[in-house]
Protein backbone atom coordinates (compact mmCIF):
# COMPACT_ATOMS: atom_id res chain seq x y z
CA UNK A 1 0.00 0.00 0.00
CA UNK A 2 1.42 3.37 -1.10
CA UNK A 3 0.33 6.36 0.98
CA UNK A 4 -0.14 9.59 -1.00
CA UNK A 5 -0.01 13.29 -0.12
CA UNK A 6 -1.42 15.79 -2.62
CA UNK A 7 0.05 19.29 -2.90
CA UNK A 8 -2.45 21.82 -4.24
CA UNK A 9 -6.22 21.74 -3.90
CA UNK A 10 -7.25 23.75 -6.94
CA UNK A 11 -9.11 22.42 -9.99
CA UNK A 12 -6.59 19.70 -10.86
CA UNK A 13 -5.52 18.85 -7.31
CA UNK A 14 -9.11 18.42 -6.14
CA UNK A 15 -9.77 16.14 -9.14
CA UNK A 16 -6.86 13.92 -8.10
CA UNK A 17 -8.14 13.84 -4.52
CA UNK A 18 -11.59 12.76 -5.77
CA UNK A 19 -9.99 10.01 -7.85
CA UNK A 20 -7.94 8.73 -4.91
CA UNK A 21 -11.05 8.71 -2.71
CA UNK A 22 -13.26 7.06 -5.36
CA UNK A 23 -11.87 3.56 -4.82
CA UNK A 24 -10.41 3.11 -8.32
CA UNK A 25 -6.97 2.38 -6.85
CA UNK A 26 -6.52 -0.94 -5.06
CA UNK A 27 -3.04 -0.28 -3.67
CA UNK A 28 -3.18 3.43 -2.79
CA UNK A 29 -4.30 5.34 0.28
CA UNK A 30 -4.67 9.12 0.22
CA UNK A 31 -3.56 10.40 3.62
CA UNK A 32 -2.83 14.14 3.32
CA UNK A 33 -3.64 17.34 1.43
CA UNK A 34 -1.56 20.53 1.49
CA UNK A 35 -2.45 23.96 0.16
CA UNK A 36 -1.24 27.36 1.37
CA UNK A 37 -4.79 28.68 0.87
CA UNK A 38 -6.63 27.90 4.11
CA UNK A 39 -10.03 28.38 2.42
CA UNK A 40 -9.25 25.58 -0.02
CA UNK A 41 -8.15 23.35 2.84
CA UNK A 42 -11.44 24.07 4.61
CA UNK A 43 -13.31 22.92 1.50
CA UNK A 44 -11.33 19.69 1.45
CA UNK A 45 -11.89 19.14 5.17
CA UNK A 46 -15.63 19.70 4.78
CA UNK A 47 -15.72 16.99 2.12
CA UNK A 48 -13.40 14.37 3.60
CA UNK A 49 -13.45 15.07 7.34
CA UNK A 50 -10.98 13.27 9.58
CA UNK A 51 -10.14 10.67 6.94
CA UNK A 52 -7.20 12.88 5.88
CA UNK A 53 -4.55 15.11 7.42
CA UNK A 54 -4.61 18.75 6.27
CA UNK A 55 -1.72 21.19 6.02
CA UNK A 56 -1.29 24.86 5.15
CA UNK A 57 2.44 25.04 5.92
CA UNK A 58 5.02 23.45 3.67
CA UNK A 59 7.43 22.40 6.45
CA UNK A 60 4.63 20.72 8.42
CA UNK A 61 3.51 18.78 5.35
CA UNK A 62 6.94 17.50 4.35
CA UNK A 63 7.94 16.85 7.94
CA UNK A 64 4.81 14.86 8.80
CA UNK A 65 5.81 11.61 7.03
CA UNK A 66 2.13 10.76 6.75
CA UNK A 67 2.78 9.48 3.21
CA UNK A 68 5.30 7.72 0.97
CA UNK A 69 4.74 9.67 -2.22
CA UNK A 70 3.67 13.16 -3.30
CA UNK A 71 1.57 14.40 -6.22
CA UNK A 72 2.31 18.05 -7.11
CA UNK A 73 -0.67 19.95 -8.58
CA UNK A 74 0.13 23.63 -7.93
CA UNK A 75 0.67 26.66 -10.20
CA UNK A 76 3.37 26.01 -12.79
CA UNK A 77 6.32 27.92 -11.36
CA UNK A 78 6.14 25.89 -8.13
CA UNK A 79 6.28 22.47 -9.81
CA UNK A 80 10.07 21.93 -9.93
CA UNK A 81 10.62 23.60 -6.54
CA UNK A 82 8.13 21.39 -4.71
CA UNK A 83 9.19 18.25 -6.57
CA UNK A 84 12.78 18.88 -5.51
CA UNK A 85 11.70 19.33 -1.87
CA UNK A 86 9.71 16.11 -2.04
CA UNK A 87 12.78 14.21 -3.22
CA UNK A 88 14.90 15.97 -0.58
CA UNK A 89 12.54 14.66 2.07
CA UNK A 90 12.64 11.09 0.78
CA UNK A 91 9.32 10.90 -1.09
CA UNK A 92 8.45 9.51 -4.50
CA UNK A 93 7.00 12.30 -6.63
CA UNK A 94 4.58 12.72 -9.51
CA UNK A 95 4.31 16.22 -11.04
CA UNK A 96 1.42 17.66 -13.01
CA UNK A 97 2.20 19.12 -16.42
CA UNK A 98 4.10 21.21 -17.24
CA UNK A 99 7.18 20.14 -15.29
CA UNK A 100 7.99 23.85 -14.94
CA UNK A 101 7.94 27.13 -16.82
CA UNK A 102 11.59 27.31 -17.87
CA UNK A 103 14.14 24.55 -18.42
CA UNK A 104 16.86 26.03 -16.23
CA UNK A 105 14.78 25.41 -13.08
CA UNK A 106 14.06 21.87 -14.21
CA UNK A 107 17.80 21.15 -14.58
CA UNK A 108 18.17 21.64 -10.83
CA UNK A 109 15.32 19.22 -10.19
CA UNK A 110 16.91 16.65 -12.49
CA UNK A 111 20.19 16.85 -10.61
CA UNK A 112 18.30 16.07 -7.40
CA UNK A 113 16.37 13.24 -9.07
CA UNK A 114 19.62 11.67 -10.33
CA UNK A 115 20.90 11.56 -6.74
CA UNK A 116 17.69 9.96 -5.45
CA UNK A 117 16.41 6.38 -5.58
CA UNK A 118 12.79 7.60 -5.53
CA UNK A 119 10.43 7.29 -8.49
CA UNK A 120 9.97 10.59 -10.33
CA UNK A 121 7.13 10.81 -12.85
CA UNK A 122 5.09 13.40 -14.71
CA UNK A 123 1.36 13.42 -15.48
CA UNK A 124 1.57 13.01 -19.25
CA UNK A 125 -1.65 11.04 -19.26
CA UNK A 126 -2.04 11.18 -23.06
CA UNK A 127 0.74 8.59 -23.24
CA UNK A 128 -1.81 6.10 -21.87
CA UNK A 129 -4.19 6.85 -24.76
CA UNK A 130 -4.32 3.73 -27.01
CA UNK A 131 -4.77 6.01 -30.03
CA UNK A 132 -1.40 7.73 -29.59
CA UNK A 133 0.30 4.53 -28.47
CA UNK A 134 -0.73 3.05 -31.83
CA UNK A 135 0.52 6.11 -33.71
CA UNK A 136 3.87 5.86 -31.91
CA UNK A 137 4.06 2.19 -32.88
CA UNK A 138 3.33 2.97 -36.54
CA UNK A 139 6.12 5.56 -36.63
CA UNK A 140 8.76 3.70 -34.60
CA UNK A 141 8.16 0.37 -36.39
CA UNK A 142 8.88 1.95 -39.77
CA UNK A 143 5.39 1.42 -41.21
CA UNK A 144 5.43 5.00 -42.53
CA UNK A 145 9.04 4.82 -43.65
CA UNK A 146 11.16 7.97 -43.54
CA UNK A 147 9.22 10.87 -42.05
CA UNK A 148 8.64 13.82 -44.39
CA UNK A 149 6.04 16.06 -42.78
CA UNK A 150 4.07 16.44 -39.54
CA UNK A 151 1.12 18.82 -39.15
CA UNK A 152 -0.86 19.17 -35.91
CA UNK A 153 -3.76 21.60 -35.63
CA UNK A 154 -5.00 21.64 -32.05
CA UNK A 155 -7.46 24.50 -31.63
CA UNK A 156 -10.22 22.92 -29.53
CA UNK A 157 -9.17 24.80 -26.37
CA UNK A 158 -11.93 27.40 -26.48
CA UNK A 159 -11.56 29.90 -23.62
CA UNK A 160 -13.58 33.11 -23.07
CA UNK A 161 -12.51 36.43 -21.63
CA UNK A 162 -14.62 35.56 -18.58
CA UNK A 163 -12.40 32.52 -18.01
CA UNK A 164 -9.27 34.67 -18.08
CA UNK A 165 -10.87 37.26 -15.80
CA UNK A 166 -11.66 34.60 -13.17
CA UNK A 167 -8.20 34.80 -11.56
CA UNK A 168 -5.59 37.56 -11.36
CA UNK A 169 -2.83 35.02 -12.02
CA UNK A 170 -4.44 33.55 -15.14
CA UNK A 171 -2.74 34.18 -18.48
CA UNK A 172 0.05 36.29 -16.95
CA UNK A 173 3.81 35.99 -17.26
CA UNK A 174 4.17 36.34 -13.50
CA UNK A 175 1.44 33.87 -12.55
CA UNK A 176 1.35 31.14 -15.21
CA UNK A 177 4.43 31.88 -17.28
CA UNK A 178 2.58 31.80 -20.58
CA UNK A 179 -0.71 31.03 -22.28
CA UNK A 180 -1.94 28.28 -24.56
CA UNK A 181 1.53 26.76 -25.03
CA UNK A 182 2.38 26.36 -21.34
CA UNK A 183 -1.14 25.78 -20.05
CA UNK A 184 -3.12 23.83 -22.67
CA UNK A 185 -0.57 22.27 -25.05
CA UNK A 186 2.02 20.39 -22.92
CA UNK A 187 0.36 17.03 -23.62
CA UNK A 188 0.46 17.54 -27.39
CA UNK A 189 4.01 18.89 -27.35
CA UNK A 190 5.04 15.87 -25.28
CA UNK A 191 3.42 13.52 -27.80
CA UNK A 192 5.13 15.47 -30.59
CA UNK A 193 8.60 14.72 -29.19
CA UNK A 194 7.67 11.25 -27.82
CA UNK A 195 6.53 10.06 -31.24
CA UNK A 196 8.79 12.02 -33.62
CA UNK A 197 11.83 12.94 -31.54
CA UNK A 198 13.27 16.38 -30.94
CA UNK A 199 13.53 18.78 -33.88
CA UNK A 200 16.74 20.49 -34.98
CA UNK A 201 15.38 24.04 -34.92
CA UNK A 202 12.13 26.01 -34.76
CA UNK A 203 10.68 29.28 -35.98
CA UNK A 204 7.91 30.32 -33.65
CA UNK A 205 5.11 32.85 -33.99
CA UNK A 206 3.30 33.37 -30.69
CA UNK A 207 0.61 36.06 -30.74
CA UNK A 208 0.17 37.80 -27.38
CA UNK A 209 -3.33 39.03 -26.61
CA UNK A 210 -4.44 38.68 -30.22
CA UNK A 211 -8.07 37.63 -29.62
CA UNK A 212 -8.31 37.91 -25.84
CA UNK A 213 -7.33 40.77 -23.54
CA UNK A 214 -4.40 38.91 -21.93
CA UNK A 215 -0.66 39.55 -21.73
CA UNK A 216 0.39 36.08 -22.92
CA UNK A 217 -0.23 34.16 -26.14
CA UNK A 218 -3.68 33.01 -27.22
CA UNK A 219 -2.58 31.78 -30.66
CA UNK A 220 0.58 30.03 -31.86
CA UNK A 221 2.09 28.71 -35.07
CA UNK A 222 5.43 26.90 -34.92
CA UNK A 223 7.49 25.55 -37.83
CA UNK A 224 9.99 22.77 -37.04
CA UNK A 225 12.86 21.29 -39.00
CA UNK A 226 14.36 17.87 -38.27
CA UNK A 227 17.80 16.43 -38.91
CA UNK A 228 16.56 14.18 -41.76
CA UNK A 229 14.94 17.14 -43.56
CA UNK A 230 11.41 16.47 -42.32
CA UNK A 231 9.32 19.47 -41.34
CA UNK A 232 6.56 19.97 -38.81
CA UNK A 233 3.90 22.57 -38.18
CA UNK A 234 2.10 22.99 -34.86
CA UNK A 235 -0.88 25.35 -34.61
CA UNK A 236 -2.94 26.16 -31.53
CA UNK A 237 -5.53 28.72 -30.49
CA UNK A 238 -8.10 29.35 -27.75
CA UNK A 239 -10.60 31.36 -29.83
CA UNK A 240 -11.72 29.10 -32.69
CA UNK A 241 -15.24 27.66 -32.90
CA UNK A 242 -15.48 24.89 -33.81
CA UNK A 243 -11.96 23.94 -32.91
CA UNK A 244 -9.95 21.15 -34.53
CA UNK A 245 -7.70 18.38 -33.34
CA UNK A 246 -6.10 16.91 -36.44
CA UNK A 247 -2.67 15.30 -36.73
CA UNK A 248 -1.25 14.38 -40.14
CA UNK A 249 1.96 12.37 -40.51
CA UNK A 250 3.48 11.70 -43.92
CA UNK A 251 6.34 9.32 -44.63
CA UNK A 252 7.73 7.89 -47.85
CA UNK A 253 5.72 4.68 -47.27
CA UNK A 254 2.41 6.11 -46.18
CA UNK A 255 0.30 8.71 -44.48
CA UNK A 256 -1.64 8.74 -41.21
CA UNK A 257 -4.46 11.12 -40.25
CA UNK A 258 -5.64 11.19 -36.64
CA UNK A 259 -8.92 12.99 -36.06
CA UNK A 260 -12.10 12.37 -34.07
CA UNK A 261 -10.32 9.64 -32.08
CA UNK A 262 -9.78 7.59 -35.24
CA UNK A 263 -6.78 6.67 -37.38
CA UNK A 264 -6.79 6.72 -41.18
CA UNK A 265 -3.76 4.90 -42.60
CA UNK A 266 -2.88 5.18 -46.29
CA UNK A 267 -0.19 2.59 -47.03
CA UNK A 268 1.93 2.88 -50.17
CA UNK A 269 2.71 -0.32 -52.06
CA UNK A 270 6.28 0.93 -52.50
CA UNK A 271 8.38 3.78 -51.17
CA UNK A 272 7.58 7.09 -52.85
CA UNK A 273 11.29 7.88 -52.81
CA UNK A 274 12.11 4.65 -54.68
CA UNK A 275 9.13 5.07 -57.02
CA UNK A 276 10.30 8.56 -57.99
CA UNK A 277 13.89 7.37 -58.43
CA UNK A 278 12.95 4.45 -60.70
CA UNK A 279 10.27 6.16 -62.84
CA UNK A 280 11.93 7.17 -66.14
CA UNK A 281 8.94 8.48 -68.12
CA UNK A 282 5.97 10.28 -66.62
CA UNK A 283 2.74 8.39 -67.28
CA UNK A 284 -0.94 9.26 -66.99
CA UNK A 285 -3.98 7.30 -65.91
CA UNK A 286 -7.18 6.89 -67.96
CA UNK A 287 -8.54 10.24 -66.76
CA UNK A 288 -5.35 12.10 -67.66
CA UNK A 289 -4.03 12.48 -64.13
CA UNK A 290 -0.38 11.93 -63.25
CA UNK A 291 0.23 8.37 -62.17
CA UNK A 292 1.50 7.88 -58.63
CA UNK A 293 2.45 5.01 -56.36
CA UNK A 294 -0.42 2.67 -55.60
CA UNK A 295 -1.76 3.01 -52.06
CA UNK A 296 -4.40 1.34 -49.92
CA UNK A 297 -6.54 2.68 -47.12
CA UNK A 298 -5.98 0.31 -44.23
CA UNK A 299 -8.00 -0.23 -41.08
CA UNK A 300 -5.91 0.26 -37.96
CA UNK A 301 -7.31 -1.45 -34.86
CA UNK A 302 -7.12 0.65 -31.68
CA UNK A 303 -7.91 -0.78 -28.28
CA UNK A 304 -10.61 1.00 -26.33
CA UNK A 305 -10.14 2.01 -22.72
CA UNK A 306 -12.97 3.19 -20.48
CA UNK A 307 -10.61 4.09 -17.66
CA UNK A 308 -9.60 7.69 -17.00
CA UNK A 309 -6.20 8.55 -18.47
CA UNK A 310 -5.35 10.45 -15.28
CA UNK A 311 -6.05 7.28 -13.30
CA UNK A 312 -4.00 5.16 -15.70
CA UNK A 313 -0.89 7.34 -15.53
CA UNK A 314 -1.05 7.31 -11.71
CA UNK A 315 -1.52 3.53 -11.69
CA UNK A 316 1.58 3.24 -13.87
CA UNK A 317 3.56 5.40 -11.40
CA UNK A 318 2.33 3.35 -8.43
CA UNK A 319 3.19 0.11 -10.22
CA UNK A 320 6.73 1.39 -10.73
CA UNK A 321 7.02 2.27 -7.04
CA UNK A 322 5.78 -1.17 -5.93
CA UNK A 323 7.11 -3.49 -8.64
CA UNK A 324 9.89 -1.56 -10.37
CA UNK A 325 8.22 -1.71 -13.80
CA UNK A 326 9.42 0.80 -16.43
CA UNK A 327 7.74 4.19 -16.06
CA UNK A 328 5.57 5.23 -19.02
CA UNK A 329 6.07 8.94 -18.32
CA UNK A 330 9.39 9.50 -16.52
CA UNK A 331 9.89 12.96 -15.07
CA UNK A 332 13.18 13.18 -16.93
CA UNK A 333 11.30 13.14 -20.27
CA UNK A 334 9.34 16.27 -19.41
CA UNK A 335 12.15 18.74 -20.13
CA UNK A 336 11.85 17.95 -23.86
CA UNK A 337 8.26 19.21 -24.06
CA UNK A 338 9.16 22.26 -22.01
CA UNK A 339 12.19 23.01 -24.18
CA UNK A 340 9.97 23.00 -27.26
CA UNK A 341 7.57 25.56 -25.77
CA UNK A 342 10.50 27.64 -24.45
CA UNK A 343 12.00 27.56 -27.95
CA UNK A 344 8.77 28.77 -29.59
CA UNK A 345 8.57 31.65 -27.11
CA UNK A 346 12.25 32.51 -27.55
CA UNK A 347 11.97 32.46 -31.34
CA UNK A 348 9.07 34.91 -31.05
CA UNK A 349 10.94 37.12 -28.57
CA UNK A 350 14.04 37.43 -30.77
CA UNK A 351 12.18 37.16 -34.11
CA UNK A 352 14.52 34.47 -35.42
CA UNK A 353 15.20 30.75 -35.66
CA UNK A 354 16.11 28.92 -32.46
CA UNK A 355 18.31 25.82 -32.47
CA UNK A 356 17.97 22.88 -30.08
CA UNK A 357 19.11 22.69 -27.36
CA UNK A 358 18.11 26.26 -26.62
CA UNK A 359 20.11 28.98 -24.88
CA UNK A 360 18.47 28.55 -21.46
CA UNK A 361 20.05 31.67 -19.94
CA UNK A 362 18.80 33.83 -22.80
CA UNK A 363 15.29 32.43 -22.50
CA UNK A 364 15.19 33.10 -18.75
CA UNK A 365 16.43 36.66 -19.34
CA UNK A 366 13.65 37.30 -21.87
CA UNK A 367 11.05 35.65 -19.62
CA UNK A 368 12.04 37.81 -16.65
CA UNK A 369 11.72 40.94 -18.79
CA UNK A 370 8.06 40.06 -19.24
CA UNK A 371 7.56 38.95 -15.65
CA UNK A 372 8.70 42.39 -14.42
CA UNK A 373 5.99 44.05 -16.54
CA UNK A 374 3.31 41.51 -15.65
CA UNK A 375 0.14 42.63 -13.88
CA UNK A 376 0.65 39.66 -11.55
CA UNK A 377 3.54 40.85 -9.41
CA UNK A 378 6.26 38.60 -8.00
CA UNK A 379 8.90 39.59 -5.46
CA UNK A 380 11.97 39.00 -7.62
CA UNK A 381 13.25 37.62 -10.91
CA UNK A 382 13.11 33.88 -11.47
CA UNK A 383 16.48 32.15 -11.32
From TrEMBL:
It comes from the Bacteria. This is Oxidoreductase domain protein. Residues 132-256 form the GFO/IDH/MocA-like oxidoreductase domain. It holds the Pfam family GFO_IDH_MocA_C3. Residues 2-122 form the Gfo/Idh/MocA-like oxidoreductase N-terminal domain. One of its GO terms (molecular function) is nucleotide binding. PANTHER family: D-GLUCOSIDE 3-DEHYDROGENASE, UDP-N-ACETYL-2-AMINO-2-DEOXY-D-GLUCURONATE OXIDASE. InterPro entries: Gfo/Idh/MocA-like_OxRdtase_N, Gfo/Idh/MocA_Oxidoreductase, GFO_IDH_MocA-like_dom, NAD(P)-bd_dom_sf.
